[in-house]
From TrEMBL:
Gene: ccmE
Name this protein carries in UniProt: Cytochrome c-type biogenesis protein CcmE
Function: Heme chaperone required for the biogenesis of c-type cytochromes. Transiently binds heme delivered by CcmC and transfers the heme to apo-cytochromes in a process facilitated by CcmF and CcmH.
Annotated organism of origin: Bosea massiliensis
Localization annotation: Cell membrane; Membrane
Family: Belongs to the CcmE/CycJ family.
Lineage per the UniProt record: Bacteria, Pseudomonadati, Pseudomonadota, Alphaproteobacteria, Hyphomicrobiales
Stretches assigned to the Extracellular side: 44-176
Entry membrane topology: Single-pass type II membrane protein
Gene3D superfamilies linked: Nucleic acid-binding proteins
Membrane-spanning intervals of the chain: 23-44
Record region (Disordered): 146-176
Residues that, per the record, bind heme: H137, Y141
Main location: membrane
Length: 176
C-alpha cells in the first residue's frame, strides 16, 4: 500500500525572509522609478530645446496650437504698433520669417535688428502669438541660443563690430 501525503492547505503561503522581502521591495521601487523616468523623457523629447528658430519651425512642420519658444532677430521695418499695447513684428533667421503678434509691454531694449526669444503658441502658417518677449539685456549681449543658431546658419560674423557678443563672460585681465 502506498501512502499518500496529505495536501497542503490552500491558506499556507511561502514565507520570505526579511532580506528577500527587502530585495523585492527595492527591485519594485527601482522598476517604478525607471519606468517613470522613461515616461518623462519620452514626453519631453521635443520640448527640451530652449527655443526654435523660424527655419526649424518650417522644417519640422509644427502643428498649429503648439506651445513653444521662438527665437531670432527682429526684422528691420517689421514692428507695427496697434491700439493699446498691441504690437506685431517679424522674427527672422534671414532664411525664414515668422510674424509675431503680442499684447503687452515690450522690454525697454526691444528694437529692430536685435535678438529676441518669444514664448507663446504657434498658430500655423507663419503666424505666432506671443505671451512674453525676452530681449537682450545690453548692447553687447545676445542670448547664447540665438547666437549659436545664427552661427550654425552662417549669418554670424564674430569679427563684425555690429554683431553683439554671444557670451556674458568677462574679458581676461591683461598681465601686469
Amino acid at each position: 500500500m502506498t501512502t499518500v501525503e496529505p495536501a497542503r492547505p490552500l491558506a499556507a503561503k511561502r514565507r520570505y525572509t526579511r532580506k528577500q522581502r527587502r530585495l523585492m521591495l527595492i527591485g519594485a521601487a527601482g522598476a517604478v522609478l525607471f519606468l517613470a523616468a522613461g515616461l518623462v523623457l519620452f514626453a519631453l523629447r521635443d520640448t527640451i530645446v530652449f527655443f526654435y528658430g523660424p527655419s526649424e519651425i518650417a522644417e519640422k512642420s509644427v502643428a498649429p496650437g503648439t506651445r513653444m519658444r521662438l527665437g531670432g532677430l527682429v526684422e528691420q521695418g517689421s514692428v507695427v504698433r496697434g491700439p493699446g499695447q498691441r504690437v506685431a513684428f517679424s522674427i527672422t533667421d534671414s532664411r525664414t520669417v515668422i510674424k509675431v503678434s503680442y499684447e503687452g509691454l515690450l522690454p525697454d531694449l526691444f528694437r529692430e535688428g536685435q535678438g529676441v526669444v518669444t514664448e507663446g503658441v504657434f498658430q500655423g502658417g507663419s503666424q505666432f502669438r506671443a505671451d512674453s518677449v525676452l530681449a537682450k539685456h545690453d548692447e553687447n549681449y545676445m542670448p547664447r541660443e540665438v547666437a549659436d543658431a545664427l552661427k550654425k546658419q552662417g549669418h554670424w560674423q564674430p569679427g563684425d563690430p555690429a554683431a553683439p557678443a554671444a557670451s556674458s563672460k568677462p574679458a581676461p585681465k591683461a598681465a601686469p
